Amino acid sequence: MKILIPLKQVPDSTVRVKVAPDGKQIATEGVTWSISPYDEYAIEMALERKDADPSTIVAVVTVGPARSRDALRQALAMGCDEASLILADEPVAPLAVARALAKIVAEAKPDLVLCGKQASDDDQGFVGPALAEALGWPHVATITKFVPQAGAAELWREVEGGHEVWKAALPALATVHKSEKEPRYPSLPGIMKAKKKEIPERAFGSLGIDATAPLLEVLSMEPPPARGGGKILKDGDAATTAQRLATLLRDEAKVL
Q1: N or C: which end of the chain has fewer CB within 10 A?
Q2: For residues 93 and 20, what is the distance between their CA atoms, to the nearest angstrom?
Q3: Which of 72, 128, 56, 62 is nearest to 95 (CA)?
Q4: Does the pLDDT at position 225 exceed 90?
Q5: Domain extents for the chain?
Q6: Using the 8-state DSSP alphabet, how is residue 194 labeled?
C-alpha cells in the first residue's frame, strides 16, 4: 500500500504570534514553523500502518515556500519514506492548491490520501475535500482510524456515543481528525537519515494547471482582547457565594 499525505507548514502552536504593521497578516520574523497538527496525526496514522506492514510506503508533499522543506524533513525524520516540494513563493488559492495536489496524486498513484482535517492557521478545512472532488475519489471526513482490506478500506469516524464505520473502494481520500496515538517524535537516527534524503522540487508554475481561483482577502487582523483578572469568592456561606457567582456570570461574564 502507498499512502500520500499533503501537509502544510504553519506557525508552531506554542509561538505567540504578532500582527504585522499592515494589520492583515502575522509578523513572520522570529516565528518557529512546524507541520500543522492534524497533518501530524495523518502522518502518525500512516506510520502505524507502516509499522504493521513494512511494505507500506508513506510519502508527503507540500505546496509552499522554500522554508517548507523543514516540515518535509521533519516528516521524513518521523519515518516517512518520500517527500516532495511544490515551490510557491507567493500565496496560492486553496482551490489551486487542490488542483496542484491532484496532479501530484495522479503521478504518484497512491492507494490512499490522508489529509489533516484542517490547517491550524486558517482553519478552512477546504483542500482535502476539494482534492477528492478534483480526483473524483471517494472521500470520508474526520476519521480516527483506518483498516485496509482487499481493494478497500474501513474508515472510522468518531460520533457521539461511539463510531461510524465507512467502507470505501481504493483509491480513496480521507481527512484525519486524530489517530488513536499521539504523533511520534522524530528519532535521532531518523533525523540523521532525513538530512541525507533528497527532496525533489518543482515550481508551481511548471505543473500546467489552471491556477485561477477565488482568493480570500483578509481585511483586518487583530490579537484577542487581553484577559481580565479573575475573582475569588471566599466570604459568606455556600448559598450566598452561589448567588454572587450567578450574578457575576450573568452581569459581567454574560454567559447566563
Answers
A1: C
A2: 21
A3: 128
A4: no
A5: 2-207, 225-256
A6: H
